[in-house]
Design brief:
The chain has about 290 residues and is mostly helical. The chain contains 13 helices and two strands. The protein has helices spanning about 5-15, 20-40, 50-65, 70-90, 115-125, 130-140, 145-150, 180-190, 215-225, 235-245, 250-260, 275-285, 285-290; strands spanning about 160-165, 175. It has a two-stranded antiparallel ribbon with strand order 1-2. The longest helix is centred in the N-terminal third of the chain and has 20 residues, at about 20-40. The chain is globular, with a radius of gyration of 23 Å. The chain starts with a helix and ends with a helix.
């Protein structure tokens, strides 16, 4: 029976051969490495030592370390993928994960910005670049990796179309858009450095190099702290995009398409509907008031 460490290494090699995204490989490497460490601590060495109760004990150990439920579920999905692969490769007779259920996650309404908070963020910006980043993040609904990878030639300032090609999660090209106000701020930022080539990074440091995703994340967090917000990560802009566009009447399929989601089910993790939203929707579409004659 193969050793756990050996099976993890072979799985990661297979993932590389299948050309999985670098971010996916990093997640698998980190999370399976943590599981392998846990197995060593409890004396599990071979794949055959992995039984359903050992997996459950691993989940409990993460709970005791007060990991967020979403993080534990991410580890669980990683384990499931690895053990399913091991079974398909005949390294295991059957997957010990077969009857394991994902740990439950408390349902919280996603955190989004209010219009007043966005205006405060804009007022706190000390550069035209940062103003453009705030509005383009919010108006495009891009993922951070996609946003950071943009080049000057990806943006059409006339139509607002942005071609997202390099870092999409599904590896599928798609087009997102920004409106007139975001375009104006972006144009003002680009005018500070004229004659950039189409291949030049859209978001740049003060020395002209590409602004990394981590630097954009740091900038948005600092900006949020400057105006007293507890949370202002780039992903919050994406959640706000989804919530605001749906509130404004955009149909859910179009929102999913702009965000690069293959199904509308994923939107439930982004959208926050208040009681007032639900009341307005019901008043507009009450079956008794509008359908029953």
């Amino acid at each position: 029976m193969p050793l756990i460490d050996s099976a993890v290494d072979t799985f990661l090699l297979d993932c590389q051969a299948r050309n999985l995204r670098p971010a996916t490989l990093t997640t698998y490497r980190q999370q399976l490495g943590q599981f392998a460490d846990f197995c060593r601590e409890v004396g599990a060495v071979d794949l055959a030592d992995i039984q359903p109760n050992l997996i459950r004990r691993y989940f409990i150990s993460m709970q005791s370390r007060e990991l967020q439920a979403a993080s534990i579920r991410s580890h669980a999905r990683c384990l499931h993928a690895w053990l399913t692969w091991a079974t398909a490769e005949d390294l295991l007779e059957k997957s010990p994960y077969k009857n394991i259920k994902l740990p439950r996650e408390d349902q919280h309404k996603p955190d989004t910005f209010t219009p007043d908070e966005v205006n405060r963020l804009l007022d706190a910006c000390t550069s035209q670049r940062n103003r453009a980043i705030v509005l383009c993040l919010l108006d495009s609904g891009c993922r951070l990796g996609e946003f950071a990878a943009l080049r000057v030639g990806d943006v059409d300032l006339t139509t607002g179309a942005i071609s997202v090609q390099r870092m999409t999660k599904t590896r599928q090209d798609r087009t997102v858009f920004i409106g007139q106000r975001a375009r104006a701020e972006l144009a003002a930022y680009l005018a500070e450095t004229p004659d950039l080539s189409p291949d030049a990074p859209l978001w740049r440091t003060g020395t002209g190099g590409a602004l990394a995703a981590g630097s954009i994340q740091t900038m948005t967090r600092r900006l949020g702290r400057a105006v007293g917000l507890q949370s202002s990560r780039p992903h919050k802009y994406r959640r706000t995009f989804a919530t605001w566009t749906l509130h404004d009447g955009m149909d859910i399929y179009t929102v999913a398409g702009l965000m690069g989601h293959s199904t509308i089910d994923l939107l439930k993790h982004y959208v926050s509907l208040s009681d007032e939203d639900l009341q307005r929707a019901h008043e507009a579409h009450s079956p008794v008031d509008h359908i029953l004659k």
